[in-house]
Write a structure and sequence with these properties.
Elements (H helix, E strand, L loop, with lengths): L2 E5 L5 H15 L4 H8 L1 H6 L4 E7 L2 E12 L2 E9 L8 H15 L4 E6 L4 H9 L2 E3 L13 E5 L6
Parallel strand pairs: 4-5
Antiparallel strand pairs: 1-2, 2-3, 3-4, 5-7, 6-7
């Protein structure tokens, strides 16, 4: 598999929106907060100290994932999507590992995500990567979210 994980650049902006809209429309709906972030990733993610990564297979952009800085040291793993045709090939795990590496490089203290309990495969992936369930985030931005998970570094004591 000729897969590369690359950082955001303006030429990839449309893929960030495309991949996430495809995923959201398949499972839920695009909420106003989603549209704002997907339409303005530089302002809503990157300008605040976040990161956006892409999975590129040959010449095709097949996945993406972002870190959104909520407050100093606190990051949300967000906007993770792999195109339907490439799911199940380990691309999500590679993106997840790369975004956790970015979190570590940034010196983050807390990494969390929000998801929905119906997404069993995604939740299993997050659990295998070290995310632990913490109930529901009371100040969630997403109407669809009913599951809150926080990453515990498996290498930490």
């Amino acid at each position: 598999m000729n897969l590369r994980i690359v950082a955001f650049e303006p030429t990839l902006r449309a893929h960030f929106g495309r991949l996430n809209r495809e995923w959201l429309e398949r499972h839920f709906e695009v909420e106003p907060i989603d549209a704002e972030v997907l339409d303005h990733p530089e302002q809503r993610i990157l300008a605040g100290g976040g990161r956006i990564l892409f999975a590129v297979l040959g010449d095709d952009v097949v996945g993406t994932c972002a870190l959104l800085q909520e407050s100093p040291g606190v990051y949300e793993l967000t906007k993770m999507a792999v195109t339907a045709a490439h799911q199940g090939a380990g691309i999500g795990r590679l993106l997840l590992d790369a975004i956790v590496d970015e979190f570590r490089r940034l010196g983050g203290d807390t990494l969390f995500l929000e998801t929905h309990s119906s997404l069993k495969a995604a939740i299993s992936l997050y659990e295998r990567a070290g995310f632990e369930h913490r109930g529901h985030k009371p100040d969630s931005h997403y109407a669809r979210s009913d599951t809150y998970m926080v990453w515990r570094d498996p290498g930490a004591s």
